[in-house]
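ok here's MOSC domain-containing protein:
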Amino acid sequence: MQPIIGEIRDINRYPVKSFAGEALEVCDIEPYGLVGDRFCAFYDETKEGWSRFVTARNIPGLLSYHAKFIDGAIEVTTPEGTVLGWDERLLDEIQKLSKKPITMSRLRDPHPQFPHLLSVDEASVLIVTDASLRRLEEVWGQPVDHRRFRGNFVVAVRDDSIFEGDWIGQRLGIGEAELQIDSYCERCVMITMNPDNLDRDPSLLKKVHQNFSLRFGVYASVVKPGRVQLGDQVKLLDNPEADALRA
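and the structure:
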């Protein structure tokens, strides 16, 4: 029997890289990740590869824009409440936040280094657990908003002794989908920004460095596409390839 290690507590999608995203009750997983996730991005054309992405590391104000993916299109709400599409009006708006010339990607533009992915950092899906969030709250001494970590899934684990790093090299069954856990996510200054008001608190990154070696959450690739919804069980699956390597 496949062991049940938890269930899906939160689903989050971020249609525009480094914009605020949307909470979902159900999502579909395609080979590149959640449908509509990191569907587009802004570019600094003076750079190459991953560095080409314009992110909130460089322009924190990007996090104050809220993006939704609706019927294959992008809808963005500005901090002032104006609703825009993925078009020149939005580009003009974002260009005001930077002295460098910025361009915008096409919808579903391939990753500059990994053509099977979109505008992600390293892999298709990012997962964090409620147990890790609680551990961080204990050492930081205050509540931690999971949105700081921009995970696609927050897994409520059945045992607080579970570390998501133990899943690396393993496969998880979630709803109709199967994911391969590939690596840790190494954290940066973005987690220091409050997702509601953008206030910074560097002490959070310091605690993640001291207590988690900057590793918080795991990246996963898609083995089997399918639908995932809130409350779906998360199962640890047999992985013949990993078992063969250990043997």
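+1. Residues 130-140 form the longest helix (11 residues).
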